[in-house]
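If your schedule permits, I should be very grateful for your opinion on a structural question. I would ask you to consider whether the tokens describe a fold that such a sequence might reasonably adopt. Thank you for your consideration; the sequence and its tokens are set out here.
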Amino acid sequence: MSRQRRRAGLFALALAGALGLAAAPGPLAAPDPSDGWPQFRGDAALTGVSSSALPASLKVLWTYEAGDAVDSSAAIADGVVYVGSHGGALVALDLATGALRWKYDPGAEIGESSPAVAGGLVYVGDLKGVVHAVGAADGKRAWTFKAGQEIKASPVLTDGKLLVGSYDQSLYALDARTGSVAWKAETEGPVHSTASIARGVAYVAGCDERLRGFRVSDGKPVLEVSSGAYTGASPALADGAAYYGTFENEVLAVDLAAKRILWRYKNPERQFPFYSSPAVAPDRIVLGGRDKRVHALDRKTGALKWTFATQGRVDSSPAIAGSRVYVGSSDGRLYVLQLETGAKLQELDLGGAIAASPAIAGGRLVIGTQDGRVYCVG
């Protein structure tokens, strides 16, 4: 990836005020949405929606040179940013200044796996298939767990368990404090998807062309719906439905109780895969496509509300804050769009392709680029 293009402006992204998990004896507590952005997509349902307020006009507050591509999306908790890179480092950065607090060497590249923070620990997976738990305060290793193959999924926490998928075709539930295996659920393809959680069930959309649900308490399978296609995106959950895109150029809505597909969307003019995970608004979902466009769809019907064209594929997962959508593109730009119409309100060239998704806390937005930089704006 090119590292030569630099730009001083950044624009406003907004993402979800997510789950802040507090340390306590026994099982980990449920997250507090006001505390930060402690995991991929901000919350256990992977909604990508933020209640945090950003300034109307943003400026770059700091950058951090990671040294290699940053596909991992940041987590933010207690005024600290945690993010991994292909250079083989998990770093903790001060949200206010960008100063490096600590650096942890996992011994392997960190790809798309994004950190999760809870109970004084930071969790992330690497491309050698190892899950790492390190101290949030000091970056010291607490425990590791070795899966059979690489981990690109992001870990999520619920009920004292750390759930993470592996390319060994399994979804693991690990004890969040010790790393011991609580259960292992097997699928029929690599588990690239990050699990989304609702009502005690973990949902993964898989490379085996199925949306699967596993009971968090014991790993028992409780749902299997055919997607009809390979899936790299993670499902977003809202009001009893799961939303995700496929590599057969479709976006699906699945009724989780009825275990059936509610609707399918395929753009009639430009048919490309959907790798981006959706953000969920009250009446619509918004996601990126490899057709270089951002798509907004009616949540009830799947009808197209609008599209917005960028100059590169959109693998970055959009975020919604208030009446705006924030999303990156492989064209190196961050876009801010009007949620209602898709009209462009701002764009800012960051110089490097963007595959990571933004994180927001404390009135600041953090995102990495594939030319090895982490940006903070506010």
